[in-house]
Amino acid sequence: MKNKLATGATIGILGGGQLGRMLALAAHRLGLNTHIFCPDPNSPAFAVTPHKTIAAYEDIASLVKFAQSVDCVTYEFENVPAATAAAITQAGTALFPSAKALETSQDRLVEKRFISTIGIEVAPYAKVDSQSALNSAVKKIGLPAVLKTRHFGYDGKGQTILKTDDDVANAFAAIGEQPAILESFVPFEKEISVIIARDQTGHVAAYDPAENVHQNHILKTSTVPGNISKALGEAAKAIATQLIIALDYVGVMGVEFFVVSTPDGDKLVVNEFAPRVHNSGHWTQAACLNDQFEQHIRAVAGWDLGSPERHSNVVMENLIGDEIIAGMQTTESNAQVHHYGKSEIRKGRKMGHINRIFTKKGTN
Ligand code: AMP
Asked: Which residues pair with 187 in a beta bridge?
């Protein structure tokens, strides 16, 4: 059943980073209000929202008050604690995407199992909860392999590549003896992602796949169209569609894929999904009339989705650390610059991005 919010309604957002900021900007353009909940008083999103709560995610009384003051709640990061999500729903307020999507994405083992159970290919993996389990996992999966903590990994944090037996010897201690998985190293040709949305009546809208390039484990550029065949792009959209339906998901999600070349042509292996708007979807702000932020707000508000159609070719470039200084001087006629309003520049910190659009030729 769809619970359609009227303009003037208020959407609660857990998390006040740049994604929360851009969600709030999109909501306000549609005549919806936002209330942002974040423990950090310097949150970039606070500058663009009329309502805010500065409190810890463990502060149940503040969460209940927040939940009761809004018409639904969403989030901009996947590490929302389970108890925080439960406090929202127990206060009688709808949470989108659901706690199930959140829980599935928070644990790499649960996530990989879920994805493979519905018949989508992931890298071969094994559960690791001790050094001896790691030794057996290496025997089963082989080297090179990637050891990843099950929880709280992003931008390459909490993971290490194992190439030799020496690397394996102390690897479990090196990741802090945390629950982990070992994944076979995927010899990928490139990485792509699909940003996909599902509304409260089950309609799905997928954006065109982006080809993503990382530098120092941080996304640097997303290019659309990527250098992939139309058929592979359609296959990626179909897999993302299958996944979003299986999760009974409401909102926008990012699905990351490895493109692997085989004697039979390129194939797709899913790396992971993020239950939120995604950095590799920022290109939609300049190349589509309805961007991923508007799409997410529409979905959680119970509205119909906008069209994911792309009117231009586009390259999104992240401005990391002091790149923001030169980036803000950009006046190219095809460039759209975004500043996240973070007061302090730090090495490796995402400070903003530039979308450069190009004429779209043909149907690709
Ligand atoms: P993740 O935190 O799982 O998104 O991983 C971050 C990045 O590490 C990915 O975007 C890949 O570039 C690389 N990576 C992760 N897992 C693998 C794998 N199994 N094989 C090869 N590269 C990987």
From this structure: none
